[in-house]
């Protein structure tokens, strides 16, 4: 192994690249990304300068939710490859100095998982049902759902089953799609199974695990109505006594997981997808005896506004620092509209959960300029960072996918009111002049599973490789500097701008200053010995608007 950072706490400042495997690179020409495609592109990822890869679920799955409906946690879906391919990928990634995190989905299985099939076929009273959350319906004939909980994807969170003899049965809980029944984490067998699954992957040299819906595993006793929270539930709405989000009892589960990870000589790390209403609640997931890191969704949802970003940075560093955990920073992932498109519109005062929170036409040039500035701001902050595949190419959200091609369950479950997340999942453009842009091997008969816009031609990795001022080369330069500069990565920062200043300026020691100009106008650069990197050309000694610069002091 040739890791850039071999310390036991590599995760404190790792830059981790999210590989949304269906859309990364297709090695076998079926139009769907796979392990072979990732293996072919490992030199690209190593050359980009990231420290680790997070691979979204690759397990056997009916793909009702892009693989977040897992039918077997110890195998690979044939569309992605085989267990042997996975082994080879981990080994080759390590050879390139890249660590590998897999995605574990503990809140729910697929309805095609053998446990759920057994629960259905076993009939009333089957002990197999205790692994899930079955309840009788309300109303005289049990024809109403057991409570008022809603699915994150729209509609009720309950589906009624039909018993093997054809009679109407109880209902089962699914906080996501009906094909994703929630597990019962009060059940000892469920708990033991997931610790065993962790060992299965750690034994295969995987360096870490991303935990899906970490805040959702435990439900309140008696499954009380939410009542006051009418309509579609927002994950992490902020209520710390919510009946199914962020309950205190989840922490003991993750303390057990930490014990599993710590039993390995090479340090294994967790990152939690935990939607907690406040930074202090999030920090509870990353206490010393619990998980290592958690995604910072407050940062992801922040509008491109200096005061808002500053507040999120300060609150994150304070809350996480209080428990000794590093912050992480993330701008995009496979669940949200790409940040080029979010920043392309007038920015609101509050958080941006989707493009629906924004008004006005998209100016993609402006969005791209801001995304460049945001990349340098993000990579200069103390802690770790997550990049979402394609952000290094400056990809934008594909907002005009034909309705008949939309695959995200959100589209159906919202009654065709929410187009869902497909627009950020369009397969990457690697090379060439038109679709499939090198996503599939040459001569592949099947087009990519979602169509790529022709307008991505200048954004292919190949085209950007040749252009010194491209987004790709900006990311490469920033990541190389970040790796070599002693001030960057884990540590602290000291602001030298005021909290309400539209210019964000901070110093890190030794000898580094980052200045992000979110005011509309150029500002004079502070004293420095050298300009290390800038997201746009500087205007003489001035820093233009929507530009970030890294200075040596
Ligand atoms: C979070 C994942 O990132 C998302 O893609 C998925 O739909 C839900 N969890 C449910 O597993």
Task: Describe, in plain words, how this protein is organized in 3D.
The chain is an alpha/beta fold. Among the domains are: 114-173, Oligo-1,6-glucosidase, Domain 2 (Oligo-1,6-glucosidase, domain 2), CATH 3.90.400; 489-552, Golgi alpha-mannosidase II (Immunoglobulin-like, Sandwich). The chain is built from 14 helices and 18 strands. The strands form 4 sheets. Strands 9-8-7-3-2-1-11-10 form an 8-stranded parallel sheet. A hairpin with a 3-residue loop joins strand 13 (503-508) and strand 14 (512-517). The model is unreliable at 230-239 (pLDDT under 50). 1-deoxynojirimycin binds next to loops.
Secondary structure tally, helices: 14
Structural class based on helices, strands and sheet pairing: alpha/beta
What is the percentage of strand-forming residues? 5-15%
Radius of gyration: 23 Å
Mean pLDDT: 95
* Beta strand count: 18
From the N-terminal CA to the C-terminal CA, the straight-line distance is 35 Å
Helix content: 10-25%
Strand numbers in spatial order across the main sheet: 9-8-7-3-2-1-11-10
Write the layout of secondary structure elements.
Elements lengths: L14 E5 L15 H6 L1 H7 L3 E4 L27 H13 L3 E6 L9 H8 L12 E2 L22 E5 L5 E6 L14 H15 L5 E4 L38 H13 L6 E4 L6 H5 L9 E2 L2 H5 L4 H17 L5 E3 L8 H5 L20 H17 L3 E5 L20 H5 L47 H5 L5 H14 L9 E2 L7 E6 L3 E6 L5 E2 L5 E5 L7 E2 L3 E6 L1
Bound molecules: 1-deoxynojirimycin.
1-deoxynojirimycin (NOJ) binds next to loops.
Can you give me a brief rundown of this structure?
By secondary structure, this protein is an alpha/beta fold. It contains 14 helices and 18 strands. The chain has helices at residues 35-40, 42-48, 83-95, 114-121, 188-202, 250-262, 279-283, 297-301, 306-322, 339-343, 364-380, 409-413, 461-465, 471-484; strands at 15-19, 52-55, 99-104, 134-135, 158-162, 168-173, 208-211, 269-272, 293-294, 328-330, 384-388, 494-495, 503-508, 512-517, 523-524, 530-534, 542-543, 547-552.
């Amino acid at each position: 192994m040739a890791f850039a950072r071999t310390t036991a706490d590599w995760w404190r400042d790792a830059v981790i690249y999210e590989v949304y495997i269906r859309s990364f690179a297709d090695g076998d020409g079926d139009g769907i990304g796979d392990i072979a495609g990732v293996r072919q592109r490992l030199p690209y990822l190593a050359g980009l300068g990231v420290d680790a890869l997070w691979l979204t679920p690759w397990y056997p799955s009916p793909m009702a939710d892009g693989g977040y409906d897992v039918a077997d946690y110890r195998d690979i879906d044939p569309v992605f490859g085989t267990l042997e391919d996975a082994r080879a990928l981990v080994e080759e990634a390590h050879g390139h100095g890249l660590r590998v995190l897999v995605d574990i989905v503990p809140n729910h299985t697929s309805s095609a998982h053998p446990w759920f099939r057994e629960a259905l076929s076993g009939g009333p009273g089957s002990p197999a049902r205790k692994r899930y959350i079955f309840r009788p319906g309300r109303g005289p004939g049990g024809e109403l759902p057991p409570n008022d909980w809603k699915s994150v994807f729209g509609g009720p969170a309950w589906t009624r089953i039909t018993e093997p003899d054809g009679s109407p049965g109880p209902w089962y809980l699914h906080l996501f799609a009906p094909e994703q029944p929630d597990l019962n984490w009060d059940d000892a067998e469920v708990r033991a199974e997931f610790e065993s699954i962790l060992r299965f992957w750690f034994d295969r040299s995987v360096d870490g695990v991303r935990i899906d819906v970490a805040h959702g595993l435990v439900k309140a006793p008696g499954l009380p109505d939410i009542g006051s929270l009418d309509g579609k539930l927002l994950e992490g709405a902020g209520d710390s006594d919510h009946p199914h989000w962020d309950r205190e009892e989840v922490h003991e589960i993750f303390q057990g997981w930490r014990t599993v990870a710590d039993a390995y000589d090479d340090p294994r790390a967790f990152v939690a997808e935990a939607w907690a209403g406040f930074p202090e609640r999030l920090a509870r997931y990353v206490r010393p005896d619990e998980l290592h890191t958690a995604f910072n969704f407050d940062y992801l949802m922040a509008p491109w506004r200096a005061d808002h970003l500053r507040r999120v940075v300060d609150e994150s560093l304070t809350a996480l620092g209080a428990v000794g955990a590093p912050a992480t920073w993330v701008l995009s992932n496979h669940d949200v509209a790409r940040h080029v498109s979010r920043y392309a519109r007038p920015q609101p005062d509050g958080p941006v959960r989707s493009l629906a929170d924004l008004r006005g036409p998209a100016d993609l040039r402006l969005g791209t300029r801001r995304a460049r500035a945001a990349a340098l701001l993000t990579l200069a902050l103390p802690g770790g960072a997550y990049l979402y595949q394609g952000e290094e190419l400056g990809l934008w959200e594909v907002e005009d996918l034909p309705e008949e091609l939309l695959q995200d369950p959100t589209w159906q479950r919202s009654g065709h009111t929410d187009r869902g997340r497909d627009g950020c999942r369009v397969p990457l453009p690697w090379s060439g002049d038109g679709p499939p842009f090198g996503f599939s091997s040459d001569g592949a008969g099947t087009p990519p599973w979602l169509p790529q816009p022709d307008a991505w031609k200048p954004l292919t990795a190949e085209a950007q490789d040749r252009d010194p001022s491209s987004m790709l080369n900006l990311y490469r330069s920033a990541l190389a500097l970040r790796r070599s500069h002693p001030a960057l990565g884990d540590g602290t920062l000291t602001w030298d701008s005021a909290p309400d200043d539209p210019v964000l300026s901070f110093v890190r020691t030794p000898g580094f200053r980052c200045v992000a100009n979110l005011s509309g106008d150029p500002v004079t650069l502070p004293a420095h010995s050298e300009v290390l990197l800038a997201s746009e050309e500087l205007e003489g000694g001035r820093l233009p608007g929507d530009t970030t610069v890294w200075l040596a002091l």
